[in-house]
Structures are given as C-alpha cells and as structure tokens.
Automatic annotation (TrEMBL):
Record field: transmembrane: 17-36, 56-73, 80-102, 143-172
UniProt keyword annotations, A-Z: ATP-binding, Kinase, Membrane, Nucleotide-binding, Phosphoprotein, Transferase, Transmembrane, Transmembrane helix, Two-component regulatory system
Protein name: histidine kinase
Residue ranges annotated for the Histidine kinase domain, each copy included: 204-409
Pfam families noted in UniProt: HATPase_c (PF02518), HisKA (PF00512), MASE12 (PF20971)
Organism: Bacillus bruguierae
InterPro entries the UniProt entry points to: HATPase_C_sf, HATPase_dom, His_kinase_dom, HisK_dim/P_dom, HisK_dim/P_sf, MASE12, Sig_transdc_His_kin-like_C
Catalytic activity, as annotated: ATP + protein L-histidine = ADP + protein N-phospho-L-histidine
EC number: 2.7.13.3
GO molecular function: ATP binding
Taxonomic classification: Bacteria, Bacillati, Bacillota, Bacilli, Bacillales
Length: 411
C-alpha cells in the first residue's frame, strides 16, 4: 500500500473521531447552557436561546455544514473537511454573536465548549497549518467581537484559548517529532536491507562472472598473438575485460559477510606494502611516492586485507589524478593519543566542491575507464572500522585525503 493511501486512511479515521465528537459536544454544550443550566439555576423564565440571534436556525446551518463535509469525504477531498467544519462553525457563531449583541447594551456572554475541544483535538490531524488556523480563528473571533462590541470581557476567553493553544502546540510538536523519528528509522532500515540484498547479489554474481572472465581474457590474449594485424582491437578487448574484472572485484567487497579478521597491525607496514605494489605504475607516469611517518605509531585493530584495499584505492586515485607526473606524500600521524591519521597528498587535477560532494556515490566516476566504486567501497570499509575519510581539494593544485582510524578496540 502506498504512502498517500495510508495517510488518507489515517485522515479519515481522525475525521470520523473529530466529526462525531464535535457535533456531540456542540449540541450537549448548547443543551446544558441554554436549557439545563437556566432551569436549575433560575427557574423556567430564562430558558431558551438569547434574543435576536440565529436561535434554533443555528442547527440547520450546522447540519448543512455536516452535509457539505460528507459530500467532500465522498468526493475523496478529505483534507479540506476539517477546515470546512472549523471555518463554517466560526462564521456561523460570529454572525450569531453579532446578531445578538451588536447595537445592544446586553453584556457579552458567549462561547461553546466545542472551542476548547477544537484546540485540544487539533493535534490529531498532525498538521501545523490546521493548528495555526484554529488558533488564529478562535482568538481572532473573540478579538474582533471584543472590538466591535466594546466588550473587554473577551480577554477572559482569549487567555483561556491561548492556554489551550499552548497545550495543543506541545502535543502537536511531540506527535510530529515522534512520527518523523519513526519515518526516519523505517527508511534507514529499508536502506540497510536494500544494501544487504544488493551486496549479497553482487557477491554471488561476481563469483559466477569471475571465472569465465579469466578464461575470456586468456583466450583474447591468445588470439591477439595469433592475429597481430588486429592487435588494436584485441587490446581494447583485454582492457574492457580488465575493467569488468575491476568492477566485479570491487563489488565483491560490498557483499562479504560481516565477520572480519580484526587483528593488531602496524599501519606503517600496510602503507609500505601498498606503496610497493603501486610504485612501478607510478614511476611509469613520472610519479614518486614519499612517506612521512611519525616514529611512534600505535598499532590499529583492523582487517589487514581490507585496510590494504582502502589505501590502495586512495593512492591509486592520487596516481590517476597526476597524468603529468609529480610527487605524492603519504603521511601518518597520531592525534590526541587515540587516533591515527593517514594523509595522502597529491599534486593532481584536484576537484571542485561539487565533485567532492559526489565522491563515494556508487558508479560516480570522471574517468574513462573508472568504475566509480573504489571510494564507495573505501567508505564502507572505513565505516566498519569506525574510521573516517575527508577530502580537501583545490582544482588544478591537488588533493589531500585524510583517513582517521581509531587506536585500540574495534567491535
Ligand atoms: P574511480 O577511480 O573508478 O573513478 P573512485 O570511487 O575511486 O572511482 O573515485 C571517484 C571519483 O572521485 C574519480 O573518478 C575522481 O573524479 C574523483 N577523485 C577521487 N580521488 C581523487 C583525487 N585524488 N584527485 C582528483 N579526483 C579524485
Ligand atoms: Mg578509484
């Protein structure tokens, strides 16, 4: 069932409750005020509606309002119904008061128990606009009547209304915050579930694809040797197969089961290892990689393979951003005693803020042969290690990637 449909059902439930209570309270309040109370207090003489007003005609009007409300519910235009009832009531009541008191010396004495009800029940629609209209409508009615009838007595009902409005406002804000939190939790759970399914699918498919891909690559290479006249096409084929392989390898990291081998490792060893792998490729592009590690670096508890993957992805990106050569600095420092910060600083193309914001999105790449998965995987691994990654970059000047990792226990 879609969200709009569920919300409509909720509104209908709230409306049913609202309409039944509104009419019951409205009529009961009138009966008590105009019949029961005068009869008990003053004998039979004062029974009935005040002179000059709509009197009994009030009821056909209110009944008409109910018919209009039912018409709109039937027409599936339900969100408007509460406004119709409220504005209709305020309008009828206002006319009634003017007819009774305007131009007379009668002391102003009006109000229906339905008004506190309107305030206190306004949160059931979980709608701030409706609450504002109710508050302004009722307070405004008394204010305008007070001015028109020169009746300072309206201050009393106004103060009462403001108190009710405060209570209703607190309830409404709580309701809204509660609904919001539940909605967010639900969305997060859905997202996590989606990722888990994607991860599982990715690993299964990746496993299935890898083997045929390897033989495909082998045969293509063989064909390349057999047909040197088409070497150009075969090179492209091999390159594309390698790209598929890269995508598949990176996707596999996503779906790995949660159980990792967290053991204590020296971050320096991991960094030296990664640098040794990429050094040759870097040299081909005229890139040197220098290291600046502080002497006393604490060991970190991590999954060694994954940590290597993290720095491999980041240093590879640094190399790929410097087609014209240059120097990459890999720094490792200890901060505040409980964090190790590794920085990879390149002199590459750099990025504008817009690009930095997109980094880590699946398949976001600016490279012709890129997968756009490297940093997404990196973020995921770091998240599992309770680490963080941050980018500082200037277009045309270079990029600094800071990776923070906690020292000590990792759950
Ligand atoms: P890929 O390397 O396959 O493109 P990544 O997720 O590793 O995917 O990186 C995504 C994008 O982020 C890259 O295409 C590039 O535009 C940008 N990027 C990442 N690191 C750097 C860097 N050091 N310098 C400039 N751009 C970078
Ligand atoms: Mg990359």
């Amino acid at each position: 069932m879609d969200k709009a449909h569920i919300l409509i059902q909720e509104e209908v439930k709230a409306l049913k409750l609202f309409l039944s209570l509104f009419y019951v309270i409205f009529f009961l309040s009138d009966i008590l005020y105009y019949y029961f109370y005068p009869k008990v207090e003053m004998g039979d003489s004062d029974i009935g509606f005040p002179e000059g007003g709509l009197g009994f005609w009030m009821y056909p009007f209110m009944f008409l309002l109910l018919l209009i409300a039912i018409y709109f519910i039937k027409k599936k235009n339900i969100y408007i119904v509460k406004y119709i009832i409220f504005i209709g009531y305020i309008f009828i009541d206002f006319i009634d008061n003017i007819m009774i008191y305007y131009g007379t010396t009668k002391p102003f004495d009006s109000g229906n128990a339905v008004e506190p009800f309107l305030f206190l029940f306004s949160p059931i629609f979980v709608n701030k606009r409706y609450f504002r209209i109710v508050s302004l409508g009722i307070v405004g009615k008394y204010a305008v009547l007070g001015i028109m009838l020169h009746a300072p007595i309206v201050i009393g009902p106004i103060v009462l209304c403001v108190s009710f409005a405060t209570i209703a406002f607190i309830l409404l804000t709580r309701f809204q915050s509660y609904v919001c939190t539940i909605e967010n939790m639900f969305e997060e759970a859905q997202q996590a579930e989606k990722l888990a399914v994607i991860g599982k699918m990715a690993t299964t498919i990746a496993h299935e694809i890898r083997n045929p891909l390897t033989s495909l690559k082998g045969f293509t290479q063989m064909q390349r040797e057999k047909h040197p006249e088409d070497v150009e096409y075969y090179n492209i084929m091999v390159q594309e197969i390698e790209r598929m392989n890269a995508i598949v390898s990176e996707l596999m990291v996503l779906g790995k089961p949660k159980k990792r081998h967290y053991t204590l490792h020296n971050i320096k060893d991991i960094l030296y290892y990664v640098i040794s792998i990429v050094e040759q490729t870097a040299a081909q592009y005229g890139i040197t990689i220098s290291t600046m590690f502080v002497k006393e670096l604490p060991s970190i508890k991590c999954d060694e393979k994954q940590m290597k993957q993290v720095f491999l992805n980041i240093i590879k990106n640094a190399i790929e951003s410097m087609p014209g050569g240059g120097n990459i600095i890999v720094e490792a420092n200890r901060v505040h005693g409980d964090e190790v910060v590794v920085s990879v600083i390149d002199e590459g193309c750099g990025m504008e803020q817009e690009k930095i914001d997109k980094i880590g999105e699946a398949f976001y790449t600016t490279k012709e042969n890129g997968t756009g998965l490297g940093l997404m995987v990196t973020y995921k691994i770091l998240e599992e290690h309770q680490g963080e990654m941050e980018f500082q970059s200037r277009l045309g000047i270079g990029t600094k990637v800071n990776i923070k990792l906690p020292v000590g226990e990792v759950n």
